[in-house]
Amino acid sequence: MKNKVLVVDDEQSIVTLLQYNLQQAGFDVITAMDGLMGKQLAETMAPDIIVLDLMLPHMDGIEVCKQLRQQKIMTPILMLTAKDDEFDKILGLELGADDYMIKPFSPREVVARVKAILRRIQIQTNQNEEEILDSSVIMVGSLQIFPEKYEAYFNNQHLELTLKEYELLHYLAQNKNRVLTRDQLLSAVWNYEFAGDTRIVDVHISHLREKIEEDTRKPAYIKTVRGLGYKLEEPKSE
């Protein structure tokens, strides 16, 4: 079956361009011209990925992303923005977008990003995939990671994680007690150049801390190593 892509943008020329290129690449494409309709289609049509513009009528992309995540709809979101505004980029990622691109962009690059995200999901959810290196449970304190199921639990409670949050947590756990620089994390989790924007790593680290730390100001699991980066370690018993 073809993967289904939901494209939400209020510029008809962009919708037409993306629809054509995605269909040429073998995708089924659903489109919406405003945020409210995009949200409704995301809820009812179960797309495999959403290409979501930031500036939309009726409901902007940030609010669409926020409401979908609040409903525990974890469909990967590639956010598009015409603004070269760092605040908008970081805010979008903070609210659960998996990736972003700045307009103007090459439609081929959009297709490549969509394929990359879906390819990772396919690998991670395929139980017979040979590339899964370790099918055993990874345990760090009260944190449990199940690589084959692509799931994580904390205190026996299922963690609702975005694709990038999970990949980052998994990579940190695989390298437990090892200090990893922001550039290392950027390279390992985001497997394409992100123009050296290591703030993206900080945003996702902050998200993970909110989900597994009792006190985010004094983290017990994900430690900051000043001047270097981050490391995941067993919490110290009091």
Structural features:
about 240 residues; alpha/beta; Rossmann fold; Arc Repressor Mutant, subunit A; 2 domains; five-stranded parallel beta sheet; four-stranded antiparallel beta sheet; 8 helices; about 40% helix
Structure description:
This protein is of the alpha/beta class and 238 residues long. It folds into 2 domains: 4-125, Response regulator (Rossmann fold, 3-Layer(aba) Sandwich); 138-232, Winged helix-like DNA-binding domain superfamily/Winged helix DNA-binding domain (Arc Repressor Mutant, subunit A, Orthogonal Bundle). The chain has 8 helices and 12 strands. A 5-stranded parallel sheet has the order 2-1-3-4-5, with helices on both faces. Strand 11 (222-225) and strand 12 form a beta hairpin. Helix 1 packs across helix 5 and helix 2 (35-44) runs parallel beside helix 3 (61-70). The radius of gyration is 18 Å and the shape is elongated. It starts with a strand and ends in a 6-residue tail after the last strand. Residues 127-134 have low confidence and may be disordered.
